[in-house]
Amino acid sequence: MKRICVIGGANADIAATTLKPFVPNDSNPGTIRLMPGGVGRNIAHNLALLGNEVVFLTLFGGDTFGLFTADSCRKVGINISFCDNAPIGTRSCFMSINNCDGEMVGGVSDMRTSDGITPKWIASKLARIDAVDAFVADTNIPVESLAYLIDHVAPLYVDAVSSPKAPKILEALRMSRKKSFYALKCNRLEWEILREAKGIQRSYISLGADGLDVLENDVTTHFDALLCKEVVNTTGAGDALMAGIVHAGPSASLQEAATIGLRCAKVTVETSDTVNNRLKELYEQLS
């Protein structure tokens, strides 16, 4: 069992999935579900399912969605004792529209509560947390906070989250004194923004159905995606991929980390849930 600290966003996910191929500019029959989400929260949830002790640092929304999200963390064994609530009425929510084939057509995120995860706030929490084996951050937090983590914690894994938020990583590297961290996880779109970044030991570039590229020491190694029984929902696959990579640990070989990450992603896309409880079975196989 590893002890891992995750710093990032937590929100309610509203997922709308069409019954037939999505038609823009029209009302599409389908299903709508409310689930706990947020990249940081999802990674923490997946890591907990993989048997890790997870300490989560976030600000929950100051509304019923925030209460819902916090309760979801408690139920799966994530330690949220160091978390706080944002001001009353503040909302943290993500809404996605998914095509009938499970692919996301688009989404809208309202993650302003994460602006309160400042360097001062993080420092006050880390001072009370015992030693951990790894740190994970997402780019929902302010760029100054990401720079602070680059300078003060290791090994640090960073999830790019989305192409609008990926530039925070470049800015944080410029702001930091250390100017380097252990591992990045991003997708194709985010990689186009981050490919010139310096100081990242390993970069995991998710290619969706085309697999995974891993860049280390200027050498790119490709790993094919694992065959799925059925792709139900791709939302959350990247979070599971990241959790598997972190679970493998910095001492794992490139091959081992990539393989565990891809296995976690495979399990996730085969369910309608953003996080698949079957990861518990995968943990038992890995143990």
Essential attributes:
287 residues, alpha/beta, UDP-N-acetylmuramoyl-L-alanine:D-glutamate ligase, 8-stranded mixed sheet, 4-stranded mixed sheet
Structure notes:
- The chain has 287 residues and is α/β, with parallel strands linked by helices.
- It has helices at residues 39-49, 64-75, 119-126, 143-152, 167-175, 188-194, 237-248, 254-269, 279-286, and strands at 3-7, 11-18, 30-37, 53-57, 59-62, 84-88, 93-98, 104-110, 134-138, 156-159, 181-187, 200-206, 212-216, 219-223.
- The strands form three sheets. Strands 4-1-9-10-11-12-13-14 form an eight-stranded mixed sheet, sandwiched between helices. A four-stranded mixed sheet has the order 3-2-7-8. Strands 5-6 form a two-stranded parallel ribbon.
- Helix 1 packs across helix 7, helix 4 (143-152) packs across helix 5 and helix 7 packs antiparallel against helix 8 (254-269).
- It is globular.
- Report how far apart the termini are: 9 Å
CATH superfamily: Ribokinase
Strand content: 25-35%
Biggest sheet record: 8 strands, mixed
Query: Structural class of the secondary elements?
Result: alpha/beta
As for the CATH topology, it is: UDP-N-acetylmuramoyl-L-alanine:D-glutamate ligase
Q: Please identify, by name, the CATH architecture.
A: 3-Layer(aba) Sandwich
Provide the helix percentage: 25-40%
The average pLDDT value, as a whole number, equals 93
Order of helices and strands: EEEHEEHEEEHEHEHEHEEEHHH
